[in-house]
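call fold(seq) -> tokens
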Amino acid sequence: MNKVKTYKIFKWLKKNNIEDKEMLKTFNCGIGFCLIANPKNLNEIMKYFTKEFKPYVIGKIISGKNKIKLNGKIDWS
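ret:
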């Protein structure tokens, strides 16, 4: 399970008692972009990225009330 990696500016903002949900709604928290793909295609997709910009899974889309589910936690430390 991966943690969402954040930059110092977002860690500083989080120290000012902003809720996780609000942080993610207002800021991208260091995530440049998201690619939505079928999990079975992950290995093929990863071949196109360098080590510097290696993608990682941050969540999944599911059916139901909460349709987007974040994997793990956000690393605010």
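Strands lie at 4-5, 59-61, 68-70, 74-75.
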